[in-house]
Design goal:
The chain has one domain: Gcn5-related N-acetyltransferase (GNAT) (Aminopeptidase, 3-Layer(aba) Sandwich), CATH 3.40.630. Strands 1-2-3-4-5 form a five-stranded mixed sheet. A hairpin with a 2-residue loop joins strand 2 and strand 3. The chain has six helices and five strands. The termini are far apart. By secondary structure, it is an alpha+beta fold.
Length: 136
């Protein structure tokens, strides 16, 4: 079962949610801390979706709406937890209607190669390749 949590629910249950956020951020390049994400959720700039299974909280997905001059997209900012093979198939069923109701015309996500392969099997297509170089 999926549930979109209100910012106050996220704040009240942060002790249980924070390890999932930290797990998702662990493979990032340090752009955000868990506290940065909590602030963005509190300001309604990001949304946290909880995935529950028989054992309780199984995973989280964090979204954000990206605004461009000619379109809005619902960006999958972070996903962390267990059992994506089970709950992942419902990702679009839950996120797409929500995104559409907010005027988004697509879903997007910055992800690692393994996740990209999973999403491609679900009908997602590559749009860009992000390259980085540290400035010394």
């Amino acid at each position: 079962m999926w549930a979109g949590l209100k910012p106050e629910q996220v704040s009240d249950d942060w002790g249980r949610l924070k390890p999932f956020v930290e797990k998702g951020l662990a493979r990032s390049r340090g752009e955000y801390t868990a506290e940065d994400v909590l602030i963005k959720i509190a300001h309604r700039e990001m949304q946290l979706w909880a995935v529950f299974h028989d054992e309780g909280l199984q995973a989280i997905v964090i979204t954000e709406i990206l605004y461009f001059p000619n379109l809005k997209t619902a960006n999958l900012f972070l996903a962390a937890g267990q059992g994506m093979a089970h709950w992942g198939k419902y990702l679009e069923e839950v996120i797409e209607p929500w995104a559409k109701s907010r005027g988004c015309v697509e879903l997007s996500g910055f992800c690692r190669a393994g996740m990209a392969k999973t999403l491609e099997k679900r009908g997602w297509t590559p749009a860009y390749t992000v390259m980085r170089k540290a400035i010394a």
